[in-house]
Amino acid sequence: MRIALGIEYDGSSYHGWQAQSNAHKQLPTVQAALQQALSRIADHPVELYCAGRTDAGVHATGQVVHFDTEAKRHPDAWIWGANAYLPPDIAVRWAKSVDYGFHARFSALARRYRYLIYNHPIRPAVLSGSVTWNYYPLEAEAMQAATSYFLGEQDFSSFRSSECSSKTAMRKVTSLQVTRENDFVVIEVEANAFLHHMVRNIAGVLMRIGAGWEKPAWALEVLQARDRRKAAETAPAQGLYLVQVRYPELYSFPYSDAVSKKITRLI
Q1: Catalytic residue among 43, 55, 89, 227
Q2: Is 68 tagged catalytic?
Q3: What per-residue confidence (pLDDT) applies to 184?
Q4: Considering 21, 26, 61, 62, which has the largest number of Cβ atoms within 10 A of its Cβ?
């Protein structure tokens, strides 16, 4: 059978999602930790496929993965069993049996990310790994004014990293919102798919606009340049969360939007 899982994790201690190694040691990744735990429950090696391969330091409250298994287990066994073997910063939130036509990555219609910026003169301590700190006063209204330039299907070459392996830079952004909640500025973006570092590079451009260093129309200039060198620096990973992956209605997966929203109310 094929099993889909909803995953939540704090990416602070991991070298991203994808299992990897260097010449000297196996690097800690979310995928490796999950595969090891699930393999113990399945009693055979498990290979996971995810909806979005998050980078080092990036978090997720709505990651979706799938794997195939011959083991017959109650859905709760995958949840409670895996969580018993997982470190405290990774948790399986739900499990569902799906048909073999489902693929966590290729069946996804859209992905939604949230970027949390702690906008205060003093850096945070408790939330240092959970938010990005920007001490320049940010005007959320100016940032929001620039969001319209990103909407629709466009070439996002200016917002992809040099390590991006995608064959095309065309992506369709369906929603981009900037709001302020107390000392937090929140960027929320949804697209059919994302290029490597695309959200963090969008956040970098919006923060320069919010700080008053550039006008909102500068975002359009950067887009039309199709040149990464014309954009801002890549924003840090700490504030980025994969919060939701949308699928066809056939797959009615549970969805919770509480975790990263609660963070914005802590200070």
Answers
A1: 55
A2: no
A3: 96
A4: 62
